[in-house]
Design a protein that fits this description.
With 218 residues, the protein is an alpha+beta fold. 32% of the residues lie in helices and 27% in strands. It contains five helices and ten strands. Helix 2 packs antiparallel against helix 4. The protein starts with a strand and ends with a helix.
């Protein structure tokens, strides 16, 4: 498996490269089809007296969905251990889920006649939740010349992907998140799957509505 290691704001020592190669041996046993793993180490220093930290991001690329894990610690070696543990756990969960799926098929079944969806635990979201998702706002981190705020908002933009609920659940498990944003191929609605307990999941979808007639008239 090819390995790429890059540092942002920090140099990568030979000792760290050696430790990475040793740690990644565990992952090869869980992801035999993996072709490449990218290791990114980012050093962050803070102006408010907070202790600098190191973020280690692992991205496993192969035949199938990309698998990611991330961990933060003041010591990059500790952050590496934590990230490897997270990635290994995600790969184990995905493997167990595939085995469980073969032994106990649980795929969702869509009835075209009635429009009902069975075989997956779907909890409809309330009107308040949908409104909050559609119109809610969150405070943004203050600029450097403003009063310091401990809240840090990280923004990431992704291209929209059309897939089924089942595929979205599988992708969520592989990236190790508690939720996954996608476009439902059956409805064309932006949707989010999220983890509940065990192998139970929920789905929140946004539906579009026509503007009121009086607004259209104006």
């Amino acid at each position: 498996m090819e390995t790429s290691i890059v540092g942002v704001g920090v140099s990568i020592s030979d000792r760290f490269r050696t430790v990475v190669e040793e740690k990644l041996g565990r992952l090869q046993q869980l992801a035999a089809k993996a072709q490449r793993i990218d290791v990114k180490v980012t050093h962050r220093a803070y102006r408010n007296g907070r202790v600098p930290d190191e973020t280690v991001e692992l991205t496993l690329v192969g035949k199938g969905p990309v698998v990611r894990a991330e961990a933060v610690d003041a010591d990059k070696f500790v952050a590496l251990d934590l990230a490897v543990d997270k990635l290994a756990e995600q790969l184990r969960r995905a493997k167990e889920k595939r085995i469980d799926g073969r032994q106990h098929p649980r795929g969702a079944h869509f009835e075209k006649g009635s429009g009902s969806l069975t075989g997956i635990d779907v909890q409809p979201a309330s009107a308040d939740v949908l409104k909050a998702v559609a119109t809610g706002t969150v405070p943004i981190q203050a600029e450097e010349d403003e009063v310091y705020s401990p809240v840090v908002i990280r923004t990431k933009n992704f291209d929209a992907e059309w897939m089924t609920v089942e595929e979205a659940v599988d992708r969520m498990e592989l990236v190790g998140h508690d939720f996954f944003l996608f476009v439902d191929v059956r409805t064309d609605h932006p949707s989010v799957v999220y983890r509940r307990k065990g192998w139970d999941y929920g789905v929140i979808s946004l539906t579009t509505q026509a503007a009121p007639e009086e607004e259209l008239a104006s």
